[in-house]
């Protein structure tokens, strides 16, 4: 072996391909991203027999002559070919299995050059596809060929297996595998492939005429990946595109702090690294994260820590079970840098692409929820567990706000952020003005569309709505404080630090710029051309693709050309076709006479004459004959005759060509303007991402406040958790105190829930009968504490919640045969995680500890756990049926005995579901078995066995401890309600003045009859076309006036103003309707005022659409809510 200098032969390889598969050990690319080497640093050299690798220049030096060599395809792409071979082995369909047999894994396409159509010679379509495939070797290649997208080799097999397509040419064995889809079915095919985890590279043809016997040029137009759809051509579409949640590339490693999870979003060009995670918290994150690719770091191998043990193939543990169910690859080196390099390889990114670190410091944040905690309270949907997410938001609040709330629950915020969220929610609860609709646009969608310059006018209008909503928050004196409070939560969610002044300034600039270019709703200066002699469908199809998208001022020249061309076309058709039509209509003949009409040939984008039997048998110079002589058969774009009945003239064809060219020119100008605007806004992408996320948070909090008010939930007092230096007791926070706690899955507003008071300053040791409510109490306390530290409302009458550093709930465990673990082993694994993670600032809730093993030793383990938690000084509850724990010599200082109450009714012991002091050793096991239908004989025999062994213990039962608590009165809190000042529009002022004038006398009479109520000034509140009523209207009676776009009025009354407005706006043409509303005393008064307004407003010159409703009869309701509303 000997060294070679750079004068030796050099073999160049593509810049984005990794050489790691050639090395032992692999080369690490950490210097490419976060740690840069100076230009003077020596190249990194790795020795191998007969080769020298110099990675600074990315060149491969070989022990050979000075001639330039080529690395064989098999060596360069070996790792990718093996990857595709593994995918082929997963094919199950008979048709795809037959195709796989005809593959040859000697190239990336898997094409056998010995079969028909298998040539890879330079210049062939197959060779061209291979060049594209080499750029993205692990993506399916779809190549546009005429009206189809074709795939060959391994890609064709995937299309047949996962997209349900049939192979070209059937299953003939003498040809290479080929498959494809029509152009119109591309979206469906891409959805099928990405749904199964594949990425797709789409190659388009360059449109336009080509020279004879020459192949069309092709280019890579884009990619479709899981979580990132194909957007090419969207800029010219008149529709929106649904964007799925982005799917990150995830890397998992282990360090001295614990587990580390690195997530990289290629679409957003961002990454985050969360370190110090427990195994349970990491698995929770994996359960909620649909990742595109999963990479496991070699630090996980040969690691024995807790339950996670990785061998050569991996074994045991919660994390192993989660990862083993997915496809993953190993990687080594620096976990962040090398994962970023993997992303560059996967997506074929150019050099110079940088990723922004959006990791937010987690020193003061509570620990992420463990998997057991998240599933047992329904933060992660789990069968049989009440879903917490479903009760936090209204049913009509879906999508991004739900995802934000879920992520906030799984990753509770720091105290400062939680306090800001709670304060914003309080302000939203009391706001009296109308609020924006909070337009939600996914950040990934914004980035991808602007980056690819495929943002169409619809998306620009949405972006402007986002910016205008932010500006509305800023300009309103009531809403600006909410905006200020949302700045820090948005920073945490996006990793972008933006100050308020910059945000507002940039929003104004971008909104104005979009308004200068984009044609907004209501602008009517771009009507579709219309002429009596030409079918309207023709102009609609030809002009709707570009009119109404950008402002006319930017297209005056193009508009003039199109108008002139349309007029010339009308003249040509009038002169050449109408005389023939008139001649045919003037001819009276029996059946079989001449027929003819001017029709739109949609497929050919032309207007032609269609007729038969119109040529005269004898030419007599009558009207129309000259025009008939000018007719010639209509031809398609390929020069073929369209049909026997279609005709045109030279003049019409010239006019059509001129009109189509003018339209294409206008469309090109529109696309140029739209793409130019996308390029401009790319520099503002951080502001747009920040603004869109801020509105997502605002919508989530507004929905939560609305639902919380409906359910009569309250805001807790959130306190910082402090520990004294000399004693393990709480200071400042004074423990956790919840009054009137109800299970979150019950609707307290409808009654029926048993409420409990929890005053917790240390560890509770809880006992109680079966079905007595122990598990429900633990689940309710866990949910209330979690909602409190997130800044949300909770189901209670009042609450003081310390800002815990972790909340851990263990309720039950199941065995895991796949891991070879019993249910007791799983339970001990979770207990180990809880004990090692708990601090004096934690909340620990354990239900029926050690129930899966032998009683005596299980009791002792339970006692030791109780001692440990008591010595840690955390708050929490340990519930148990192991009553022997009370006979153990426990060394506890602060633990308190609590029980779930029971009482004797008709000589039967029944649970009360109330928390009381003391110990309850009655299990009600026999009664529970009897209620569940266990045979009576079996229960009687069990009672006999029990008495024979445990008779003495049963005589010692202290029934005095089976007490009960009195029911609690539910306190309903109300917030202030006021009216918003009029905006100044003439119609709004007129309607408001008329409504107040009509209603004042009736309200004055009412106040005179109710001396205990102080008269209030009447003012209507305006809800604009893109606004919604505040949460303070929930449950309140109101009279409203809908101001339709046609200036007609609709009068109504409701106790659900938000729902009624949503219903009205869902009707056609009513999307931009505005509303004026007035909060009144009860439904009876609302009905009276509704009738009064319907009967009197027409006499003041207003047009009503529901005059008939003025004849209805009023009805009464309770005065309690009305008095409360008027008192406010």
UniProtKB/TrEMBL annotation:
TM regions (residue ranges): none
GO biological process terms held by the UniProt record: DNA damage response
PROSITE patterns documented for this protein: DNA_MISMATCH_REPAIR_2
SUPFAM superfamilies: DNA repair protein MutS, domain I, GIY-YIG endonuclease, P-loop containing nucleoside triphosphate hydrolases
Coiled coil stretches, renumbered: none
Molecular function terms, GO-annotated: ATP binding; DNA binding
The entry's keywords: ATP-binding, DNA damage, DNA-binding, Nucleotide-binding
Keyword DNA damage attached: yes
InterPro entries, alphabetized: DNA_mismatch_repair_MutS-lik_N, DNA_mismatch_repair_MutS_C, DNA_mismatch_repair_MutS_N, GIY-YIG_endonuc, GIY-YIG_endonuc_sf, MtDNA_mismatch_repair_MutS, P-loop_NTPase
Domain DNA mismatch repair proteins mutS family positions: 842-858
Protein known as: DNA mismatch repair proteins mutS family domain-containing protein
